[in-house]
Amino acid sequence: MSPPSRKGEQVDDASGAALEATARARHAAGDHRGALEAYEAAFRLYREEGDLGSAARAARTVGWFRGWVFGEWAVYQGWSQQALTLLERVADEGAAGWRLCEEARRGHDLETQRRQYLGAIALARRAGDGDLECEATASLGIMLVFSGMVTEGMEHLDRALAAICGGGVQELPVLEGSLCGLLNACERTQDVDRAEQWLRAAEPVIRRGNLVAVGGHCRAHYAGILVGAGQWEAAETELRRAVELLVGRDALRDSALCRFADLRLRQGRFEEAEALLTGLEHHEDAVVPLARLKLAMRRPHVAVELVDRYLSLGGRPDYVEGPLLAVAVQAHLACGDTDAARRCGDRLAALASEQSMPGLRGVAAVARSQLCVATSSGDPRSCWHEALAYFGAAKMPLEHAAARLELARYSAEERPEVAVAEASAAFDEFAELGAARAADEAAALLRALGAPARTGPKRRTELTRREEEVLALLGYGLSNSEIGARLFISTKTVEHHVSRVLAKLGVRSRAEAAAHASRY
After folding, report:
1. 0.90 exceeded by the pTM?
2. Residue of 482, 484, 477 lying closest to 515 (CA atoms)
């Protein structure tokens, strides 16, 4: 009855408990396939021993491995049902709580599900089942966050994570599911600070159990948090690993690719972002980055069509609708439709007032400032100052720098000294992030204001940073005027850079340089 040994390892198959301990050790060592095999064998032994509650626990864990680790969702459903069937034969409060938790997970009525999760929590406390209490508490929290009740939902997630850090939770699906759920909720609500605090607090548990290191899905959520926090090098590492882990799991992999595109968009690498989003136009996670990309490429009508299509569906959580509305305001203004922009701005302001999400409130303040400028009504400065405070609190450095740049543009005519100070600070923030294109915008404004020229650091390569950017755009077949528009420099300056690129590469034509770009 023992599972196949791995690399000569002898498996102790004396009991289901011994095999479960072996499975845990294999998981902690990173041997996920071996852990799965040991859990499957433990399930069989528990059934032979007549320990149906433990067999149900092993079945839940096998299902979790099959679905979240290996992407075999049909198999996951089968093992979940197997666990539920076994629990129906166990007459104690703990088993009743697990059944109630599963019913809530499969339900569709929010209030009924809330009662079921709360009932499962009460049963867990009476039975002294810390895993069940954590599972029901975290699941309730995730459900509430994704239903728009962010504050209440996060309170439940905080309780679940406290239980994990306190050592009262043992089951892998509960540990990983609660941590992954927290990262998902924090990414969607732009709550970088909460994610960082809990990852620090749970670090000993994560390290000891090799947690949040298995599933590409959880890595993608973590990467999304890193993208928003401006930790782009770490985000890229996590995203590359997530995409690698999610090969063959198209829906989850596409979600990770959307985050990759968002990163490239923030870095100003538009062509790469566009390539990543090709074929993902109907994926929900692609809508906002794709609309922002169309705006950046001066195609606002396409951006309007994208966001209007998704907003018209309705029933979306605030964390989804908020960014859509923010892009809609900007896109409608770019199309000259101030009435539509104002309607979206009003809805965004209402959402922000209902939620204690500083990131969303910062986005709403930016939208108000844009409407003030477009309609010449009110003073947008107070809105930008408000946005700066919120983005600082939310640890959103790119948005913080962008708000500073907009404040500098608005102040350029009447308060040039303020404009120079804000544009200079924005440039420094963009440069530190690695947002090259945005840094170029700030540098262009500084030049227009007569301030000393600012340039980003040169790379440790034969080409300068600017020449690398020109070469990359040559690779996409852009003309000198198109390159100038992308980099906020004159066509004549582009011609100078192209000449230097050709000379440094030892090629004679733009076509040869373009061919070289793909491998430079």
Report:
1. no
2. 477
